[in-house]
Amino acid sequence: MAEMGQVFGIKALAAMFDRAKQQRRAAFLPYFPVGYPTYEASLDAIQAMAEAGADGFEIGVPFSDPLADGPTIQAATQVALENGITVGKCLDAVQALRRRGVIQPMLLMSYLNPLLAYGPERFAADARAAGADGVIVPDLPPEEAEAWSEICRGAGLATVFFLAPTSDSRRVELVNRHVTGFIYVVSLTGVTGARAELPPDLTGFITRVRALADKPLVLGFGISTPEQARTMNGLVDGFIVGSALVKAGKDGAGPVGALAARLREAVHV
Amino acid sequence: MTYIQTSTTPVPDERGYFGEFGGRFVPETLIPALDELTAAYHAAMADPAFRQDLAQLQATYTGRPTPISYAKRLSEHLGGAQIYLKREDLAHTGAHKINNALGQALLARRMGKQRVVAETGAGQHGVASATASALLGLECHVYMGSVDIARQQPNVFRMKLLGAEVIPVESGSKTLKDAINEAIRDWVTNVRDTFYLLGSALGPHPYPMMVRDFQSVIGLEARQQIVEMAGRLPDACVACVGGGSNAIGLFHAFRDDENVDLIGVEAGGRGIEGGEHAARFADPNLGRPGVLHGTRSFVMQDADGQIVNTHSVSAGLDYASVGPEHSYLRAQERAYYTYATDEEALAAFQTLCQLEGIIPALESSHAVAEVIKRAPGMPKDSIILVNLSGRGDKDLDTVMRELGLNG
After folding, report:
1. What residues of B are in contact with residue A64 (Cβ under 8 Å)?
2. Are the beta carbons of B27 and A113 separated by less than 8 Å?
3. What is the mean pLDDT of residues B362-367?
4. From A44, A55, A69, A126, the catalytic residue
């Protein structure tokens, strides 16, 4: 892992995917919001997941109106806002995690408005300086992201765009052209949150995307159990778990680390 | 008479931009649905049968054209401009919202979408959506903040009577903003068989354009009516602005009439200084360009870009953002925006009741409040056309409470 710390941004993510590929498994990318249940506890949870073998992180920036999120993440990010978490505080969190020895790639996940308020150029520069590798903006489709992509490129940050089961071939190609990090494949039509079962047509959907896209595919939305995680090897290059870890986070870093270890173990070959 | 006006103006462009405002800032899942909606909307507008269906409903169901009334006693009382009221309060369901709801419901049926979701603040759009759905045999689900449910009980009951499901929203400020969040989440989840019947001229493209076009009937009628009744165009058009659909519906027909002032009135709430208001354009500390609910416009937000809670005595104006075309018209200096406080709106409400025998919606009372401020300073031969966007029966509980008439 030591060599991972020497590269950043797009290259760090590429190295992460290469390493998982060599191990013939999907990379495990947990999501966790800064400030839930408290600022310190969220850092502890992310550190525990790093020690449990997570390959990279989505670091959640709270927003008052998270319209792509289900009840679990809505409630957690609301708590984070009540705890006074700002964009600046999330950048501090990345820096603090680096100081704690977390060397995995970290992508900040934020809705657009807080980034606009912070100032996109300033945000990109400060995110890079804090040690972040990329940014995910769920309400910014590639059509609206021309300036944003340019800013990220300048700062060396990886960009991620989404594909959904409703995306047609034209959109698969469009998104594939625009991402420099990976394609975030949304498993289902819906918001974030644990689901008992993944959609039955998932393999067909991924196959359709694969045929037109050469960037790494990372699956998210609805994945919560080690059983579901096990099905990710050979299907996608990585997977994201959010709500299940956030739920575990209510009881502190210990349960989060334990669930992360089980999820990571599930893809071990 | 023409019953609908489509986009003959250069705004929005193909990507849904009114200058620097508008666009489409939504999760990927919805982009294909918005593309489908845009194509279906253009196809419907190009189809004479669709336009005829809508015109037929407007004439035989909504009761269009709604009249304009000369407010003689109000004009005399104020001693200045002559005041005319565009009577959207007389449209079926009691507000202008039905114009857009019927248009979109017809479009939903044409697209083969049987399930409709809508958001509502004051309940007027919810009632209009439930009404249009009942008329056209669609299944209707309305998201409404629990705070709004408490202050708009009659409309909640109306929606239920009309066969709609009213879903209380408990997240965030529990008002219109949060109802829109939930409606969008529902749409993301059920996007393949669901039509999102958005009630104001906001949200991602094509909604701001489509809602404006469906509401443009207000201004088209009013422009012809005022010329017939008063012999000329008005000097000013005044309308309240929450999301801004009644205002854009009135303004659209007058946009090229350079000598007609277009005046939008936001909710000043308890005053601008304390921040308890919904005057996005009046408070530079809170109202700045940003992105909320899929569109770039003026948004009430804190320094960190979090959307702040708004306040207005009228639920229909209690919203943190404003339709992008209003931000554009303001930037172009084609329209001017001001505000009326809760207190001024309540006073205007009573004035109109007593002088004209019309009980206006609290939303529309904000427009009347501006007229009360503005008219006395204008010459006696000048004309103000004010959009009376809805009737006030739904607000009686609120007004009784605010005026202390309950005990």
Report:
1. 172, 306-307
2. no
3. 98
4. A69
Window B:183-242, CB contacts with A under 8 Å = 184-185, 188-192
Cβ within 8 Å of residue B278, ≥6 positions away? B242, B266, B267, B269, B300, B310, B311, B312, B317, B318, B319, B320
Annotated catalytic residue A143: no
- Tell the residue number behind the tokens 């059983």, with chain if given: A227
Of the candidates A18, A40, A55, A58, the residue annotated as catalytic is A58
* Minimal Cβ distance to A87: which of B15, B27, B304: B304
Residue A23 has pLDDT above 50, yes or no: yes
> Is the confidence at residue B98, as pLDDT, over 70?
yes
How far CA B58 is from CA of A106, B63, B131, in Å, comes to: 55, 6, 13
CA pair distance B300, B308, nearest whole angstrom:
6
In chain B, DSSP finds a helix count (H) and a strand count (E) of 15, 14
User: Does residue B389 have an active-site annotation?
Assistant: yes
Say yes or no for a CB contact (<8 Å) between A64 and B307. yes
Measured between CA atoms, how close is A111 to chain B, in angstroms? Answer: 9
Any idea which of A95-99, B17-21, B120-124, B331-335 has the lowest mean pLDDT?
Answer: B120-124
**Active-site position among B75, B88, B97, B363:** B97
Mean pLDDT of B37-55: 97
* Cis status of the peptide bond prior to B168, with omega within 30 of 0: no
**Three-state DSSP string of A64-93:** CCCCCCCHHHHHHHHHHHHCCCCHHHHHHH
Pairing state between β B194-196 and B236-240: unpaired
At B1 the pLDDT is: 44
- The answer on pLDDT for B8 being more than 90 is no
Write down the ipTM of this complex: 0.95
Q: What percent of chain B has pLDDT over 90?
A: 91
pLDDT at B207 over 50: yes
Question: Residue B10 region, left (φ>0) first, then alpha (ψ -120 to 50), else beta?
Answer: alpha
- Evaluated on CA atoms B267, B271, B275, B279, the torsion sign reads positive
Q: Which residues in chain A have Cβ-Cβ distances shorter than 8 Å to B176?
A: none
Distance (Å) from the C-alpha of residue B33 to the closest C-alpha of chain A?
8
Residue A5 has pLDDT above 60, yes or no: no
Cα separation, B298 vs B238, whole angstroms: 20
Tokens for B175? Answer: 């008002």
Radius of gyration of chain B (CA): 19
The order of strands in the sheet holding B17-18 is B17-18, B21-22, B295-300, B287-292
For A162, nearest residue in chain B (alpha carbons): B28
Q: Is the pLDDT of residue B73 over 80?
A: yes
